[in-house]
Give the backbone structure.
Amino acid sequence: MTQPESSSAKNAGFNTRAVHAGQAFEPRTGAVVPPVHFSSTYAQDGIGGLRAGYEYGRGTNPTRDSLQEQLAALEGGAAAFSFGSGLAAEDSMIRALTRPGDHIVLGNDAYGGTYRLISRVLGEWGIGNTPVDMSDVDAVAKAVAAGGASSAAAGGKTRLVWVETPSNPMMKITDIEALAKVAHDAGALLVVDNTFASPYLQTPLAFGADVVVHSTTKYIGGHSDVVGGAIVVNDPELAEKIGFVQFAVGAVSGPMDAFLTTRGLKTLGVRMDRHSDNAQAVAEWLLERPEVEAVLYPGLPSHPGHELAKKQMKKFGGMISVQFKGGEAAARKVAESTSVFTLAESLGGIESLMNYPSEMTHASVKGTELAVPVNLVRLSCGIEDVEDLIADLEAALSALDAGS
Ligand SMILES: Cc1ncc(COP(=O)(O)O)c(C=O)c1O
């Protein structure tokens, strides 16, 4: 017996799919939560006689399959692949879809770890790259057409156009539909890193993207207790290529990590509503503060990507970047003086986190054109009571006033 068709059907609501997709109850005992399958291997009834298609844990695992089904259902994709980290997912996907001599055009404010992977690891294997402002569609089209000719690095034809929207940590919004056209006109694929938005707020495949990337460590896992990554696609040919590399390279998520990610994903919609509402209130409060030079949050009408964000996102998410008039000293002081916001790497968990990107998450791009301004602090607004978040920031910002 399996779960009712309606509960995971494509036309069911987001939260219904989040709770039920890939989560059929266990037929032998009726356990409502599918058990975690730790077994690395499966008994065969005679050579090649597999009981349910399972053979060996690197290739397939029922707990990982459940998560993959859930991810595909939420992103509106035909297939999803779960990996041991976001960067492992990116690495396997790039290996599957590019060849030495190919070129990647990516955001000039891409996540530092993504740029490090593409430039310093895959660059050594002959993949070129050009960082460009993804919110400038004409600039992207030029870089895509130029391919390897536009950079000193190795690389020829542009194979991937790589977008983060909202971007980390500059919170730029990119027009997914416009860039899908730019990529497709040049015979390239559009990759969207959907980590900041999550599939509850934005589904890039519906706007023409070919590949969705996630660090599931963030909002999808949602509780800062598991590291993971995922790739979601619609095209069966892309799925076949990525599935082969997932199997052949083996950078897969383990059963316990897949289970924790699935458990987090079930409450994604509820959490994202709260993260977004808290961040909106915090951003509006910050905007009024005299210590603040700029609040980068797409939910503010003053944000250059606000109208576009309204078109392609359901709400504006839990991430805010703030720049301080007092420069590096002020940003560092705020980052080190909150107590509800914890100073830590990462984002997207239920607890609020504070990050100083230029020395923390984005230290690897210091001194490059992707360097983050030194007066910038990034906030990941959790699901605590918003009054407590604002009181915490108020105390930190007031300490700046007093010059202490
Ligand atoms: C936008 C974005 N993409 C990808 C990654 C990489 O994911 P992971 O740390 O799970 O390898 C991160 C990590 O911070 C990220 O913020």
